[in-house]
Every structure is written in structure tokens, then in C-alpha cells.
């Protein structure tokens, strides 16, 4: 299941992402953009900042990403895929299928706590451009809807799509604005929250209530 979910997210990428994944220079540029976003903020880094940190020629960057917005889009997509891969891995390692939602939530929070850009976003009012936020939300919703649907034939039901959308929005909100209750530094408390609040929603969506 985890591999199929990751493949689903990868297949939903923007055009050219497969070439980028195999292009070490492109990844070096996006790594530099990530470091700049973590250092000065997503809304403040410039193409010149990325060129300098990546240690490549200016035209090397512009050939791959003609506009700053293209760098932002590529960065947002790559990190979203990494995030969802971490969530899929958490689901895969759940010993009991009913623990999948809790493990997904723990994996999401763990990834966010360790991610330099997400850590910064949790303490500032910075945000991605609305178009990129919409893409991230769509990818997350699609990922979660297919997880809820599982290996059943056909497409996720409306109920599953709605539940997935609620989960995606909740995850993004909790990660960007961590609450004090539940305590995001306490895994036991996060797991209890997931069991009491999130798992019942998922079980209702898949007809296991």
C-alpha cells in the first residue's frame, strides 16, 4: 500500500518532475532553495540567493527555473512528496490496520518537527503562495482518499474524499500552527488524540464504525 500511495503522489507531479528527480543539478538548486527558505523565509529569498548557495552559474538556474515562482513550485512539490512518503512509511509500519491513521499523524508531526522550512513556518506568519497551497492540499487529499479507499475496486467514495479533505486541511493547519493541546512534543498525547478524534472519522468513512 505505501509504495502505491507514493507512486500516486509522484504521478500527480507537474510536468518535468521526473527529469528533475534524475537531475542532480536541479536537486542541488532545490536543496539551496530549501536552505534559503529555512534561513530567511519562503517569501524573502531571491534567485540570486539560491544561485549563490547552490554554487552554480546563474544561467544554470534560469534554464531550469525561468522564474522565482518556478523554484518555489518545485520546492513545494518535492517537499510535499517527501512528506507524504514519510506518512506512507508510517502507515506501512502500523502493526494493526486500525492504527494506520494514528501512525500517519505521528509520522506527519515527526516529519514537520524535523523539517527546517516547516519549523520556521510554525513560528512565523509566512505562507506559500495560494496556488502552491492549493496544490499541496489537493495532493494530500488525493493521497488520503486513496488510503481510506484501500484495495477496493473503483474510486474513493464521496464520503472518503470528504474525510480525506478534512484530514488534509487539519494536518496542514496543525503543522503550520501547532496547538498546545494536544502537546506536539508528546507522542503519547498525539497518539491518544489520533485514537479519540481522527480514527473514528476514518473508520466511519470506510464503513467500520
TrEMBL record:
UniProt entry keywords in alphabetical sequence: DNA-binding
Membrane-spanning parts: none
Residue ranges flagged as DNA-binding region: 46-65
A Pfam family that the UniProt record links to this protein: TetR_N
Alphabetized SUPFAM superfamilies for the sequence: Homeodomain-like
Domain spans labelled HTH tetR-type: 23-83
Xref: InterPro entries: Homeodomain-like_sf, HTH-type_TetR-like_transc_reg, HTH_TetR
Any GO MF annotation of the entry: DNA-binding transcription factor activity
Claim: DNA-binding is one of the keywords in the record: yes
PANTHER family referenced in this protein's UniProt entry, alphabetically: HTH-TYPE TRANSCRIPTIONAL REGULATOR RUTR, HTH-TYPE TRANSCRIPTIONAL REPRESSOR RV3405C
Name of the protein in its database record: TetR family transcriptional regulator
Amino acid at each position: 500500500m505505501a509504495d502505491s500511495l507514493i507512486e500516486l503522489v509522484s504521478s500527480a507531479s507537474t510536468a518535468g518532475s521526473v527529469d528533475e528527480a534524475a537531475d542532480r543539478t536541479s536537486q542541488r538548486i532545490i536543496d539551496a532553495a530549501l536552505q534559503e527558505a529555512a534561513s530567511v523565509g519562503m517569501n524573502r529569498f531571491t534567485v540570486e540567493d539560491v544561485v549563490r548557495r547552490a554554487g552554480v552559474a546563474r544561467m544554470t538556474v534560469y534554464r531550469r527555473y525561468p522564474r522565482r515562482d518556478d523554484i518555489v513550485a518545485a520546492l513545494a512539490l518535492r517537499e510535499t512528496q517527501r512528506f507524504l512518503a514519510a506518512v506512507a512509511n508510517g502507515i506501512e509500519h502500523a502493526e494493526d490496520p486500525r492504527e494506520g491513521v494514528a501512525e500517519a499523524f505521528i509520522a506527519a508531526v515527526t516529519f514537520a518537527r524535523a523539517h527546517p522550512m516547516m519549523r520556521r513556518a510554525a513560528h512565523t506568519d509566512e505562507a506559500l503562495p495560494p496556488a502552491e497551497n492549493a496544490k499541496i492540499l489537493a495532493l494530500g487529499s488525493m493521497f488520503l482518499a486513496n488510503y481510506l479507499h484501500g484495495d477496493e475496486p473503483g474510486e474513493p467514495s464521496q464520503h472518503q474524499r470528504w474525510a480525506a479533505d478534512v484530514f488534509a486541511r487539519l494536518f496542514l493547519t496543525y503543522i503550520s500552527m501547532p496547538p498546545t493541546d494536544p502537546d506536539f512534543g508528546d507522542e503519547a498525547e498525539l497518539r491518544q488524540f489520533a485514537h479519540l478524534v481522527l480514527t473514528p472519522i476514518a473508520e466511519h468513512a470506510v464503513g467500520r464504525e
